């Protein structure tokens, strides 16, 4: 896996993935940015949500659950008054919708993502970040 990040001036950087997709990251005005894109740490947090949500949907579909929607709401805490201001806690809350979803299957999918499949989340956990998960099922 490869990526390239190129400075665009001021506090703005454009990242391009090996698959050719780009994302613009920028800093806040008080740090020389113009707020044209997410901060790098926001991008990391969104990546954890994307990785884990992908797993949850994939596992549910493989277990023949009729999932029609999955939203991952993330909240994170960072080290205060420290540099680097690393994540110390991340909570992922999944809101899963579908027809006749079995709670045991949703719980299993969230657990498997957390404990076995989500590379991003597991990498952060191994680095000392407390990562927790919860879920809600909507009809």
From TrEMBL:
SUPFAM superfamilies per record: OsmC-like
Annotated segments matching region Disordered: 19-38
Pfam families the record matches: OsmC (PF02566)
InterPro entries the record matches: KH_dom-like_a/b (IPR015946), OsmC/Ohr_fam (IPR003718), OsmC/Ohrsf (IPR036102)
Annotated protein name in UniProt: Redox protein
Organism annotation: Alcanivorax xiamenensis
């Amino acid at each position: 896996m490869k990526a390239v990040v190129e400075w665009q001036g001021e506090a703005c950087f454009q990242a391009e993935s090996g698959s050719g997709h780009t994302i613009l990251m920028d800093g806040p005005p008080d740090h020389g940015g113009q707020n044209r894109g997410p901060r790098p740490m926001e991008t990391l947090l969104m990546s954890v949500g994307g990785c884990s949500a992908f797993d949850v949907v994939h596992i549910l579909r493989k277990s023949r659950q009729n999932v029609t929607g999955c939203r991952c709401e993330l909240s994170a805490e960072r080290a205060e008054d420290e540099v680097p201001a690393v994540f110390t806690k991340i909570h992922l809350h999944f809101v899963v919708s579908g027809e006749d979803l079995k709670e045991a299957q949703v719980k299993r999918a969230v657990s498997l993502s957390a404990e076995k499949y989500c590379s991003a989340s597991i990498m952060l956990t191994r680095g000392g970040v407390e990562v927790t998960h919860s879920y809600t099922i909507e009809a």
